[in-house]
Amino acid sequence: MRRREFLLGALGALAAGGCGVGPQSAPKPVSQPVTRPKIDGDLLIFNWTEYMNPQVIRRFEKRYGVTVTVSNFDSMPGMMAKLRAGNRYDLIFPTADYVARLNRQNALRPIDRAALENADGIYPFFDNPWYDKDSAHTVPYGMYTTGIAWRVDKVGELTGSWNDLTTEAARGHTFMLDDFQEAIGQANLLNGFELNTTAPEELEQTKETLQRQKEYLRGYSTNPAPNLVNGSAWIHHAWNGDVVNARNQSKQPENLRFQTCSEGIPVGSDCMAIPANARHPGTATLFIDWMLDPEIASANVSWFGYPMPVTGSEEAFAKLAANDPEIQITTDDLANGQQFRELDVEGKKAWDRVWIEVKA
Amino acid sequence: MTSAFWQRFLVPGALWLLFFFLVPFVIAVLISLGENNEFGGVTYGWHPEHYADALDPLFAPVLLRSVGYAAATAALCLLIGYPTAYCIARYGGRRRNLLIAAIIAPFLINYLVRTYAWVALLADEGLVNSVASSSIQFLNTPWAVIGGLVYGYLGFMILPIYASLERMDPALIEAGKDLYGTPRQTFWHVTWPQTLPGVLAGTVLVFLPAVGDFVSAQLLGGPDTYMVGNLIQQQFFGADNWPFGSALTIVLMAFLGLFIFFYLRGAGSRERREALI
């Protein structure tokens, strides 16, 4: 008898749990409480890999006597899938276009800037960004651009164009980012199209460009730093921080270079945000404030290689960019450069199709 | 003992199948028939068109490539795994269990991490090339992908073959020799048929996960080593299209199910099938 009861209970729990695996109906609007920056437990961070200086985290732990756990995702859809499944994180790092999406689902807690000690240091550019009205739910974190990283000892100088991805001398030693947005984006720019174009005849031409570029490739990867350092890649479609990362790992950092491309520069920014179902939003808010401290931000910038929009951290990045200004990115670039936007359903389908046809 | 008593021992296995096969399978089918909503989630419904998309001829080369890599993997695992299992079973003596434990030891470390280790070892300026002062390109080739698969799944070949070798009565080999069989004849007429169930089990256990693998192709592969696992993974974590990813999964399962059915039916007698199951 008891066994049967247990079985039914287990089945019930499973059925309930099963519904949480991905499928979600539209959210209902809820008013969420504002949180004070105050320790209310240990911190669980959900972030990209190698996207925050571990030393900064250790110092936070020591200062406030809490344990910080870092869990990693490797793509925005991967992050979304975990959130949809009901996993509870205290602090997440979505890109701008995904902030817009999370906000429509009321999935983020408001962050009261007035409660943060260091909020005044955030660049005013982010006071009311396109992805988050009045910056009510986010604090900007990293700014990035996409370009080409290369080994100057192997291929010499490049020309500053996306055409450098098809450099004859690096045939079979060239990698493209294994990211459909970035890959299609650079081919769009190379062809003189809008970064986010969904026009069928333009995408057809972009597909042909990608297929032509594929003949020069050794592979698709989202790990530019190790590929460049271990010699498999001589030319690598990469983000600006990757080259800093690669230099930190390399014995000959002077061989590693980065360029942005004249046909167009994809730029973007991402954020720190607190999910609505966070267990410890107080600690998360405190941690955000901690990251905005100019000294902490500087330590973080020197390590992860991307500029933070925080007054007082510029010098740390200037040191990194001293020998190659191309990794620099400013809020002017964000205003003028091209940013990936959310595509409509049909447009998204067309992009997915291009990517499958290129890779299959 | 009544048979009702013994039937109770089926309960744990049945529960296992129910929770870890049937329920996830039903969920996958439901998702595959659903529709992608704005938030990347799934709204349930009746949308069989994902199956039409999944049968697009565009995917035929991807599937054939995956089956080819997996078949090569199974064959190489058999070539490496059989002699290994044989040596341990026949000549391992009292160290047998230790040797088997050594075969299993790498599985204590995550497959993904071990594959990253191969990248560090075999890169153009990696450890192997710098020790040997060579500049051989090992990585980003179909061979690297197959090598990664063999490395990842070899244990699944060795263990069942070892089990069938150990179960075998050594007196049978002596009997073969007493009947003037050469070592080669004895092996092919006595040992091999006795261990065939283990070989069949090992082949299936290696082939199935290898077809659906995406780690090896993603980390060790080149531009033309896209496998069906990569395609499915891309639908879940790149394109954020779970219904299509699920439909691809179900189609792959159906295909592999048929494949294994005919393989086992063609592979031998009823006893062998029973030994396998």
Rough shape of chain B? globular
**Mean of all residue-level pLDDT scores of chain B:** 91
Work out the radius of gyration of chain A.
Answer: 22 Å
CATH top level class name of chain B: Mainly Alpha
Sheet-strand content of chain B, in percent, reads under 5%
Indicate the multimeric state.
Answer: heterodimer
Work out the count of structural domains of chain A: 2
Tell me the β content of chain A: 5-15%
The CATH H-level homologous superfamily of chain B = MetI-like
Rg of chain B, nearest Å: 22 Å
Report the top-level CATH class of the largest domain in chain A: Alpha Beta
* First-residue to last-residue Cα separation of chain B: 25 Å
Please, how many helices of chain A? 14
* Mean pLDDT rating of chain A: 89
CATH fold field value of the largest domain in chain A = D-Maltodextrin-Binding Protein, domain 2
- Sheet having the most strands of chain A: 6 strands, mixed
Low-confidence stretches of chain B: none
Q: Hey, which two chains have the biggest interface? A: A-B, 43 and 44 residues
In CATH, the topology of chain B is named MetI-like fold
What is the helix content of chain A?
Answer: 40-55%
Topology:
The complex is a heterodimer of chains A (360) and B (277).
Chain A lengths: L1 H19 L22 E5 L6 H11 L3 E5 L3 H9 L6 E2 L3 H9 L33 E14 H4 L18 E4 L2 H11 L9 H15 L2 E5 L2 H6 L5 E5 H10 L6 E4 L7 E7 L7 H12 L1 H11 L9 H8 L9 H6 L8 H15 L1
Parallel strand pairs in A: 1-2, 1-3, 5-6, 5-7
Antiparallel strand pairs in A: 4-7, 4-8, 4-9
Chain B lengths: L2 H5 L2 H23 L2 E2 L5 E2 L5 H6 L5 H32 L4 H9 L6 H12 L4 H5 L10 H26 L2 H9 L4 H30 L2 H6 L7 H10 L4 H26 L2 H7 L1
Antiparallel strand pairs in B: 1-2
List descriptors:
heterodimer; A: 360 residues; alpha/beta; D-Maltodextrin-Binding Protein, domain 2; six-stranded mixed sheet; three-stranded parallel sheet; globular; disordered N terminus; B: 277 residues; mainly alpha; MetI-like fold; two-stranded antiparallel ribbon; 14 helices; 74% helix
